[in-house]
Amino acid sequence: MTTKNLTSYGPRQFGGRIGFPQWQFERALRLELIPAADLDGRWSAAVVNDVVARLDAVRAAVGTVPDVGAGRAERYLAERFTGLTVHPGTAAELARRGHLPRKGEHKGHPLYCGLTLERFTDRGKVARASAAGRTYTRDEAAAALGLRAADFDHLVRAGLLTHSQTTVSAWYKGVVVRLYRQADLDRVRRSSRIDLDAVRATPKGCKSPLATLPTKT
Question: What is the sign, positive or negative, of the torsion defined by CA atoms of 89, 91, 95, 97?
Fold first, then answer.
């Protein structure tokens, strides 16, 4: 923390004075723990000194975890809830259920609220989100359902399955990979429209019973 006293402060100088990195300073502003600039885009020394006087309370309210991507959010939850398996897709599922707010994005990928992560205490919600939100590639999803890849493609073509998110292939640069979530696979298992046992029993090389499904338009 800088000890230099100025008559007015820009955002970097203010952050330096109180020892806040940019993300922490911006969150404090967003939460109105730091007031809006009072001198044409800068803060007067009086305002800064007031924040310094209550800095411990401001720091506690701002938290120590920045807004992060899905991977870091899931690693944080796994470390916090020891012994709980946190599958890829958990952060997105928590957001889908209204438990983990999104806070913008980075390079096209969502960022999740670090303050919410830091204060999360409900192990059960994380466990349920991990079970329902677990994601699979197309081949992994087909294997999870016990189907051939071609059978799986018919489900997608008919609109009975839709990918929940995408990622970029770790092996082929620029290739977008569609990911399917566990809850959607479970819904297909329960569907009365298809007989998965009959599909699984179809010999290799024979036409899939799913081929007759109408294509979703």
Answer: positive
